[in-house]
Design goal:
86% of the residues lie in helices and 0% in strands. By secondary structure, it is mainly α. The chain has one domain. The relative contact order is 0.11.
């Protein structure tokens, strides 16, 4: 069974996390029983289950990019203002 990343697990809702853990338990049991045909099906369910958390992670990344862009734009305006003030002093 393949685990999802810690970042994705951190963004699962309580219900999704409970279901994820239960499916992982079932998958590990099936692996012990050498029922890899059924493990494949359980892994597909896990992959579907974590899709919303992956989207939430992507949205957090996009928001961070927007915040960085806004910060840099604001900083750029501030630097230009200081350069203008320095020119007045000369």
């Amino acid at each position: 069974m393949r685990h999802c990343s810690v970042q994705v697990r951190g963004l699962l809702t309580r219900h999704e996390l409970d279901r994820y853990n239960a499916l992982m338990d079932v998958g590990h049991f099936l692996e012990q029983q050498l029922r890899y045909d059924l493990v494949y099906t359980v892994q597909k369910e896990i992959d579907i289950l974590i899709l919303p958390a992956i989207e939430r992670l992507k949205e957090k990344s996009r928001q961070r990019d927007r915040d960085t862009e806004a910060y840099l734009a604001q900083k750029g305006r501030g630097d230009a203002r200081f350069a203008y003030d320095d020119a007045d002093e000369e």
